[in-house]
Amino acid sequence: MKKILAILTIGAFIVSCEESIEQKAGRHLDNAKEAFSIGNFNVAKQEIDSIRILYPKAFETRRQGIKLMQQVEEAEQLRAIEYEDSMIVAATAAFEKIKADYVFEKDERYQDIGLYTIKSQAPNRNIDRTYIRAQVDELGRMTLISSYRGSSYIHHDWLKLSVGDIYVDTPESNDRHEFTDLGVYYERLSFINGNDGGAAAFISANKDADITYTLYRKTGPDSSRPVYRNLKLNKNDRYAIAQLYDLSLILLSLNEHKNLRDEAERHLMFIRSKMQDESTENAVQEND
Asked: What string of DSSP letters covers 116-150?
């Protein structure tokens, strides 16, 4: 009789402990539900994680926590989509306000992505001078182009732009196109997709200042020499590049928010597919 009583006592103790674990885990679940209800998703996720870490044997509460976690993740993605939609609307409005200031060029036969330029900087309008021009593609990627005209090739690799004692150096570029026409030599050195060492930003920030620049050619592993000194970047070019830099920032922002929205949409579809699969599985088990 005493042995039976002892066994029953131990059994009751075990049941009591199991109930206590579920109850303790349940408090975290309640906290998670409350946080979720007011949109505090991070706290909700932390509380659900606490159940898994602190009470790994609270199986029923953990199951409910997993279900709630999916609801939290779904709500997170819906919130992200709503935010990205608002940012896309804002960036699109900013673009529509200024797009008439640019020339858009796209040959559907050869180009997947079109280019925005400023009419005053078109090469056919500036064939007789050395200058810096810019272009921006539809994704917002900006290319700065150093255009040289002279009596011989100089094979320049990089630029230094200065305003007084303040200056910026571009990186070296191997993207050079050279040609000659009627005894005149031309070079086009391009710094593609924003890889200009901050030169475009420097021009934009100093568009109202006197900017000079020097063309350099690399002459050894660690040395360079100027091949064309103290050129003036005229006001029209400064303002054109600054305009294109502003366009670049807007289009980069617009495309970034579109990509983030697409990512949130994909994540949402994945979460909902998991929720649907688990719902179907539970329904089958209940019918069985």
From this structure: EE-GGG-GGG-TTS-EEEEEEETT--EEEEEEEEE
Residues 55 and 173 in one domain: no
Confidence band, pLDDT 50/70/90 cuts, at residue 278? confident
Structural domain includes residue 197: yes
Q: Which residues pair with 147 in a beta bridge?
A: 131, 188
> Rounded to two decimals, what is the model's pTM?
0.84
Domain tally, the chain? 2
Q: How far apart are CA 2 and CA 60, in angstroms?
A: 34
Q: Does 47 reside within a domain?
A: yes
Q: At what angle do helices 59-98 and 2-37 cross, to 10 degrees?
A: 10
91 vs 257: CA distance, rounded Å? 9
Indicate the pLDDT class of residue 111, thresholds 50, 70 and 90: confident
Which residue segment(s) compose the domain that 75 sits in? 2-96
User: What 3-state class would DSSP assign to 181?
Assistant: strand
Identify the domain boundary among 44, 76, 96: 96
